[in-house]
Design a protein that fits this description.
Blueprint lengths: L6 H41 L4 H19 L3 H16 L2 H37 L3 H14 L3 H16 L3 H25 L4 H27 L4 H8 L2 H34 L2 H37 L3 H37 L3 H9 L1 H23 L3 H22 L5 H29 L16
Amino acid sequence: MAKNYSKDSSVIGTQAARGRVFALAWPLILSNITVPLLGLVDTAVVGHLPDSRYLGGVTLGAALFSFLYWGFGFLRMGTTGLSAQAHGRGDIDALLRLLGQSLLIGVVIGLGLIILHPLIIPIGLGLLDGSPAVSAEADIYSRIRIASAPAVLANYALIGWFLGRGQTRVTLVLMLINNSLNIVLDLVFVIGFGMTTAGVALASVMADYLTTATGLAMALGVWRQWHWRKIRGVLNDRRGYQRLLSVNAALFIRTLCLLFAFAFFHSQGAQLGDTTLAANAVLLQFVLLASYGLDGFAHATEALVGQSLGANDEASFRVLVRAAIEWSVLMAMAATLIFAVAGEGLIGLLTDLPAVRAMANAFLPWMIAMPLLATASYLLDGLFIGATRTRAMRDTMIAAVLGFYLPVWWLSQPLGNHGLWLAFITFTLARSLLLGAIFWREWRQRVWFADSPKQPVELGE
């Protein structure tokens, strides 16, 4: 293990690492914050239409596509880890291969979703169980929105690629473009042209394609370094596809397990009554708020860890990981403090129903504890994605669901909703402990670093 820093250079390296982590994280945090803004505008625009079924249809359809597209989020994560390592090695050929192959995989999957939409949409909306009028509007929304699948999944690949190269400001620009276009087109189609559910869906489709076109244009400067003949050869490189698909397959299973965990939580909350379901929905907004900051530092960690591993630079790796831990803990402490001081006020902003408000306040202590208890799981995800150790992520997620989440829920059912939150928190802690144990073991054995010559990662801008 490299320990050749002098006292002075160690201090400078630590400060540079802190600055580098924050410089990569803040655009990601801001881009995360823009997501609920779009939801608010969609709700405000459709909520002023004369019939509530339009709002219900857009809400139900958007929920279906959030679930559907989130399931393919591995395209972003897998591309980030591999791109970061290639960037750390200075391997421009590998970077361009990853971009081209990830884009191609995203487009192929997106076209597959369009072909299968006559099966996917009825099944998905049936599981969401809306009223006939609302489901009819959701069906209209969904049959238009599915057209965006190739663009959305291609954009996942682009964002992962830019993030792997440490270009987080580009990801912020793409998110701002997508959400801004979506908002403007919402207003044009619904208020200007008098459209309803179809107008909201069409706005999303057009915004997704325009955003992807912008991302491709931004990446074109790098692609111009290659001749088209070489690009065609790389896109036919089977070994590159095999590695990319191997990384992504494990992430796909991991994501499905995470989706199951949230779906199971909602399902069990619903069985405890409508008030409990509504209170839990309010409290999960606290989880979402905390994730905006924690995810930002986790994603920055993906890029920096991948780059240091690609350069085979253990010294930079150690400093960067330490800086990421510091920022993540500070963010978690800030979220905990905000929830402790202003939690009841936030609940009041989210709902004016007395029964729901009272129940959410009763379970607020779980939310106060959540950021500090969950911070390790976010950060470790970033570490393992950057290192492309996705099989460990898959295996520990399965173990956390089957070995901790479900058994704790089963044993704690007499505790009602407290038992459900206990199971969810236990699931989060289990992910942290299991991944942490693997990380510590493999770090001590130095299995994350190859035997290639050391090439230090530049910590400055």
